[in-house]
Amino acid sequence: MDYAQWHAQSLCPDWDMRGVVTHLGMMERVLTGWLPESADDTPPLDRVGPYHEEMAALDDAAFAARVGEIFAGRRADLALLTEADLARSSWTPIGPRGYGEFLKIRVFDFWVHERDISTPLGWPCDDAGPRAEIALGQVTDSIGYIVGKKIGLPDGASIVFHLTGPAGRDLPVVVDGRAKAVDHVEHPDVELTTDTVTFIQLAAGRIDPQRQIDAGLVTWTGNDQLGDRAARNLRFTI
């Protein structure tokens, strides 16, 4: 990346491209060498301040090299993990989980932030494979919350999300007291179609729903009011 690219605006309103990479490197620096002893054992967050001081003092070339070193160290850690390590109880940003589940959250974070950079710069990304499946899984695991709380689909209503492209699938959801994913809906009230990348980016609050609707990247059939509400209220991340 040249200077203009490093300092171009990312999809994160508060960060340029270097800011996104700084964030990713920060968490990997914190996690390097750490394995949770229990769900109450938090990562060594005292590393955050020194990390930011170190990175702020580096020019772009030295910054890129240092991030590469941090990522290499973290990959070496991950390569040594056993199944028992993945099953450890762990602190995570969404509450106690297994350490393997924490790593899935990290994959989701990287997947989204990678596109925070690549989408504005027009760079291609690999939108298939295990990382895409894990990133999409973080959204689909919360689809009941998204439909019930964010979209606010009324009781008795149903929706099917038709996701196209790599990792594509159908996601039927019904509201019966509470919203929940189901295997099949015979006659859904609304059907919304979009590609998996747009779906995840909308769920992460990274892109403007209206622009995706205007571009024909998000469409729906059935109940127009519910479809419009669904298209505009997929965001579930903080």
Automatic annotation (TrEMBL):
Residues 3-117 form the Mycothiol-dependent maleylpyruvate isomerase metal-binding domain. It comes from the Bacteria. GO terms for molecular function: isomerase activity; metal ion binding. NCBIfam families: maleylpyruvate isomerase family mycothiol-dependent enzyme. Residues 158-228 form the SCP2 domain. Keywords: Isomerase, Pyruvate. The keyword Ribonucleoprotein does not apply. This is Maleylpyruvate isomerase family mycothiol-dependent enzyme. Gene3D superfamilies: dinb family like domain.
